[in-house]
Amino acid sequence: MAPERQFHETDEVLCYDKNFPYAELGVIFNTGSCIYRNVVIYGIGDKKEILENLQRDQLSGMPSIYFEGNSIRFGARQLLDAVNEECDLGITYTKNDLTKYAEMIKEELENTEKNFSLALLINNCDYEELIYDTTLQECLTTICSTKKIFFIGTCTHPLFPSPGSNAREELRCYFLKFSTFKYLECEDGDDDDMDVDGDEVTHKTQSIKVVYDSLTPNTKKLFTLMMQLFVKNNFKSIFSDDLFSQARDEFLVNSVTVMQEMMTEFLDHEIVNRHHDSAGKVKFILKIKKNVLIDFMESEGLELEEEEDS
């Protein structure tokens, strides 16, 4: 397999997947159910387009289902329902014992024709909710044990399936390292020293205002709190745990899931990016230029620094 590659620009066209081993993976995926075909592609950078290319080209001869791992709607139930529907198994199951549901799907799959294959594509499978979702991983292991179903996951660090888990051992994944944005990595491997001034997305004060005005009151407060943390940390990356802890103390959120849902607008509009450090902890990177952020905060009368208790 090809080693980790760097971001390229050719004739003004972004070729971030240059030298990605599409053909080699295609051979594996189309071998059939005689081998395990589970692959996890990990490294810095978004890999959604890589999955879409695989789905269009290498997986064109079989059914496939695409999932966004960082969606709050994605979980074991959605996974199993999608497989049930795609394979036309006709299983009706409304109970909460999803491991039993997975076993029922497995039994039905064993009765399908020998050369049947179904690919499950999971983008951002190292989303923190999935890493600790043992039910999802157990269900995925069960339905993939037939070898007729296999999954292709993408992530920043190879944390899915969870290291040390039964799923990690039984799924027998091939881990392929391929980074689309190598320059985001620090040479010394210390993410705490990461400064992203060279990788900021172009924003204007007005465009940030449009996003800000669309937020709920609590989400606006979360936005302000997050920007204050960036300022306090000299505009370097901040830990998701720190943001959640302070947001909870200020009664803005009561769970990580709620905060993740509120963060959707910030991520979708590239106000911040999310990544994992070398220890697997989630961090947020500010994508707004410092001067633009300061101008916006001042125009809205928002404090850039947290008020100290008197």
What does it look like?
The protein is α/β, with parallel strands linked by helices and 310 residues long. The chain folds into two domains: 7-177, 3-Layer(aba) Sandwich (Rossmann fold); 205-300, Winged helix-like DNA-binding domain superfamily/Winged helix DNA-binding domain (Arc Repressor Mutant, subunit A), CATH 1.10.10. Helix content is 39%, strand content 14%. The protein has a five-stranded parallel sheet, with helices on both faces. A three-stranded antiparallel sheet has the order 8-10-9. A two-stranded antiparallel sheet has the order 1-2. Helix 8 (205-213) packs across helix 12 (290-299). It is elongated, with a radius of gyration of 21 Å. The relative contact order is 0.13. Mean pLDDT is 83; it is low at 1-15 and 182-201.
